[in-house]
Amino acid sequence: MAENKSKPKRRLKPPQSVREKAQQSKNIIAKDKKPGKLKQAIKRLFIKIGNFLKKYKLFRIIAKILKFIGLIIVPKYIRNSWKEIKLVTWPNRKETIRLTYAVLAFAIVIGAFVALLDYGLNDLFKVILLGKH
């Protein structure tokens, strides 16, 4: 009797969703943007200055006043819009060009369809209403 030596079934990965692709590209970009020593030193300096100023009541009061003025000057809609824009994953150059061509092609096709429909309906109404052949 011959033994049935079948290969195990190959399992395919499900395709990545748009959200997973965006998260993966963010992770790649985050790995590429490692801060330099100068940038880290400046960041530490600002943190130390901030911690120093937090100790004094006057600076806390001034910070609260400036924050309140900022809330009045900049409307809530603009603040929320800015937060949303930060969350957007923008396409790269190649994808932008591809999508632009797709939009242009779609616009040309729809424009031609509307022009043909307009021409046909124009002739139809001339025949029906005016009785011209």
Set out the fold topology.
Elements (H helix, E strand, L loop, with lengths): L17 H15 L4 H18 L2 H17 L2 H12 L5 H38 L3
Structure commentary:
The chain is flat. The chain contains five helices and no strands. Helices cover 75% and strands 0% of the residues. It has helices at residues 18-32, 37-54, 57-73, 76-87, 93-130. With 133 residues, the protein is mostly helical. The relative contact order is 0.03. It folds into two domains: 36-88, no CATH class; 90-133. The mean pLDDT is 81.
Classify the secondary structure makeup into a structural class.
mainly alpha
Average predicted local confidence, pLDDT: 81
Strand count, sense and barrel status of the largest sheet are: none
Give the helix proportion (percent range): over 70%
Give the ordered list of helices and strands: HHHHH
Unreliable segments of 5+ consecutive residues = none
Keywords:
mainly alpha; single chain; 2 domains; 133 residues
Task: Summarize the structure in short.
By secondary structure, this protein is mostly helical. The chain has five helices and no strands. The protein folds into two domains: 36-88, no CATH class; 90-133.
